[in-house]
Amino acid sequence: MLDEYKRLGVRMVSTRSMGFDHIDMKHAQEIGMAVGHITYDPTGVAEFTVMDILMAVRRIKEINAKTMEGDFRLKGMLARQLKNLSVGIVGTGQIGLSVLRDLSGFGCKLYYWNRSNNEEANKYATRLGFEDLLQRCDVVSIHLQYNSYTHHLFDAEKIGMMKEGSILVNTSRGGLIDTEAMISALESGHLASVALDVVENEFDLFYYDCRDKDLSNYYVGKLRGMPNVIYSHHMAYYYREAVWGMVYNSILSMKQFDEGKEVPLRLI
Hints:
By secondary structure, the protein is α/β, with parallel strands linked by helices. The protein has two domains: about 1-40 and about 240-260, Rossmann fold; about 45-230, Rossmann fold (3-Layer(aba) Sandwich). It contains ten helices and nine strands. Helix 3 (about 45-55) crosses helix 5 (about 95-105). The two termini are about 15 Å apart.
């Protein structure tokens, strides 16, 4: 596709997303194709993440399912309170930092892991080593870019290090988690719950009408049927302010490139 763009005279590709793992960056550089991405107000994704955490802690999916069935018994539905839990944030970029800021009002113990010290994050949380965070926290929320270094960062070994009965939340990229290992941990009870806005191999499903499609061979087909899995189809970013920022910043970067000006979010 990049070669065809080049043949047609296109000089820059601007992706309307923060993530750029869907672009062959090496090949773009080889053929001299400029690549830019965008930024947007991250607070809406942070709000969505906090919502997912609260829904998992309070077992909302299970409650809703029983309510719809007319089963109003309380037995087996005892939940926990966020303020009494330890929450670990993996990655303190704009979104991870915003999640920390939002969670600071709940009274829970907050920890974070980042490759470098983050002075702003230190206002809300204690920095830990990655494995220490996994072993200590009741809730772990992932906020990292997806690349060859972070692919399956949460594999069977790392998920096995997490506390028994802990909760895993991912609103970043599906490939950060080894989905088979995660499903096994859910089935064994090692993980109490997961909340996902993303999943591996989602791109031929999202954002299409798949009501008549057999999803049994897709992870989404397995996950959506599990009572302790909260699942949405990659839409934590889908709110008015963010979509406006995506469109505006994508067009702005191309305009600046065309005018020979510096493109702040230029990748290549």
